[in-house]
Specification:
By secondary structure, the chain is of the alpha/beta class. Helix content is 53%, strand content 13%. The protein has a domain of 141 residues: 3-Layer(aba) Sandwich (Rossmann fold). It is globular and about 55 Å long. The two termini are 17 Å apart.
Length: 203
C-alpha cells in the first residue's frame, strides 16, 4: 500500500487535487478533518489542549472553540508549539489506526493524506513506518492564490497573513517527489493530477 502526502499552500488547490485523486481510485484521508476530530468533545486531544492553552479556548458549553484556539495561536509561535505538541501526536495516533485498518483490509492500493502542514510538522510521519513515502505538492503563484482566498471571504490582509504563516513554496518543493502547478483551469489541474497518478501507480 502506497501512502502519499499531499500538501500545498492555502489557495493553491490542494483539496481539488485530493478530490481528483479520489476519483482516480485513491483512498483520501483528510488530515485536517482528523485535527478537528481530536479537538471535538471526547476527542483524543481535547483535555490536553485545554491543559496546554487554558480555559479561555472553551465555549459556553465547556467544549473547545476552534475559532478561539486559532485566535490564541495565530502569530504566537510559543502557543502554536504548545498546541501542536499535544494535538499532532493525537492526529498521528488516529492516522496509525486508519492506515492499519486499510492495510489489513487490503483494498486500498494508494492512500492520499490530504494535509495542509506537511512541511511544517511531523504529521503523517509514523513511528511504525506506515506513514507517507511520497510527497505531492500543489502550488500556484501568489497572484493566483490571493483572488481565490478573497473569493472565499478573506480580506487581502487576512489572506496574506495566512500565506505568510505557512511554509514557503521553496520549503514544500524541497520535500516534493512530484509538483503540480495549478495556475490554469480546473481541466488542466485534473490532467496534471492524472499524470502524477500514472507515475505513482504505473501504466
Amino acid at each position: 500500500m502506497l501512502v502519499v502526502g499531499l500538501t500545498g499552500g492555502i489557495g493553491a488547490g490542494k483539496s481539488t487535487a485530493a478530490a481528483r485523486f479520489g476519483e482516480l481510485g485513491a483512498h483520501v484521508i483528510d488530515v485536517d478533518a482528523i485535527g478537528r476530530e481530536v479537538l471535538a468533545p471526547g476527542g483524543r486531544a481535547e483535555q490536553a489542549v485545554v491543559d496546554a492553552l487554558g480555559p479561555e479556548v472553551l465555549d459556553e458549553q465547556g467544549h473547545i472553540d476552534r475559532a478561539k484556539v486559532a485566535a490564541e495561536v495565530f502569530g504566537r509561535p510559543d502557543r502554536l508549539a504548545a498546541l501542536e505538541a499535544v494535538s499532532h501526536p493525537a492526529i498521528n495516533a488516529e492516522l496509525e489506526l486508519r492506515l492499519q485498518e486499510l492495510a489489513d483490509g487490503g483494498e486500498a492500493q494508494v492512500v492520499v493524506l490530504d494535509m495542509a502542514v506537511l512541511a511544517e510538522s511531523r504529521l503523517g510521519q509514523l513511528d511504525s513506518g506506515r506513514g507517507y513515502t511520497q510527497v505531492v505538492v500543489v502550488e500556484a503563484p501568489e497572484a493566483v492564490r490571493l483572488p481565490r482566498l478573497i473569493q472565499r471571504g478573506l480580506t487581502e490582509d487576512q489572506a496574506r497573513a495566512r500565506m505568510a504563516s505557512q511554509a514557503t513554496d521553496a520549503q514544500r518543493r524541497a520535500l516534493a517527489d512530484h509538483v503540480i502547478a495549478n495556475d490554469g483551469s480546473p481541466t488542466e489541474l485534473a490532467a496534471a493530477v492524472d499524470r502524477v497518478w500514472q507515475q505513482l501507480v504505473g501504466p
